[in-house]
Amino acid sequence: MLSQTLKYAYFPGCVAQGACRELYQSTQALTQALGIQLIELKKAACCGSGTFKEDSQLLEDTVNARNIALAEELNLPLLTHCSTCQGVIGHVNERLQESQTSNPDYLEQVNGLLHKEGCSPYQGSTEVKHLLYALVTDYGLEEITKRVTRKLSGLKCAAFYGCYLLRAQKLMPYDDPYNPQAMENVFQSVGAEPIYYRGRTQCCGWPLSSYATNESFKMAGMHLQDALTAGADCLVTPCPLCHLNLDSRQPEVEKVIGHKLGLPVLHLPQLIALALGVSPEELGLDRHIVSTKPVLEKLGL
Fold it and tell me: Domains (ranges, CATH) in the chain?
């Protein structure tokens, strides 16, 4: 048993609260089932998903310094459940921590802008951590396995990490950015079978979608097809933006590549929570664009 309740300042991000509400819902269900306490940062702003810096690095750093400062006020790590949010906020945290010694004038400029808005200053005193790594390193896979009431035996799961999770930050202390194993280890801890395929650590194509839509969809289609060819029953991602491109837009992807895919895409908390006995309805599995019925039927649900 864990000696104390894990507690985090929770940054849910925009996509999970809007376009894919079931992902927000499933993270809440999972953390409640595990006894993890989330203090939601309701005053937090969108991280920018990497677009703010195209106009201004100072804008990206200031917006996310404020997000981090909200967690610092609570003296808690900032928890994300989005690969993109993790990459953006985590890298801002790295950059500003370095600025404390290498470029203090820049940090003073950031904090000056925060002060003008009546916000707390960035101190560089906390960690930005994705839910995946909080589960693996803080909670522990053995503890998760102890709580499994519905083993996902026979379910073949293909991980899709999202490039921002693996390589946006300079340091990746929890996994290998080019050959990660954390998600596959989670799959095994809940009784599922990991499926390895070429695209599991690559970009889903989302960053291209606003200006090169066909190329974005071709990229997504390639990954989905590779996972299917490798024998996957479902794709599992820790990123709502990847979820949007791979699930919500899969019908459009099929039109671009010219053939049917029909591969269910699950958010990582949905998969784990299923193994803990949480109902598919509570996890919003009926809200996906690509039906999750084949997954549930394979599990006898």
Answer: 7-129 (1.20.1050.140), 141-299 (3.40.50.11810)
